[in-house]
Each structure stands twice: as C-alpha cells, then as structure tokens.
Amino acid sequence: MDVPLELSAYTRVLKLASTPGWEEFSQIALIAGAGILLVGLMGFIIFLVMGVVPGTGI
Q: What's the pTM?
C-alpha cells in the first residue's frame, strides 16, 4: 500500500471535501438507523428461533 507522505496530497482532499447540509445529513442518518434496526431485528429473530427449535438452544 502506497501512502503519500506529501502534505499537498492531503490538503487537496480536504479542499474537495465539504460538510453535508441538513437534508443530506438527516437522510444519511435515517438510512443508517434503519440499517442498524434491521440488523438488530434479524439478530433478535435468530435468537428467538434458537430458543424455540429443540436442540439449538443455549
């Protein structure tokens, strides 16, 4: 992996970067929250199935 040691490479990236507006931030937060809830729900369903099906319980 080639990591540039020149400061100009980092300043160029920082100049291109911009902070998101409120609409973009809220949309990203909503999608990330929905993903977290979906993964948690899937884990809970697997936990329930593991407890109900004989021989797979903890």
A: 0.62
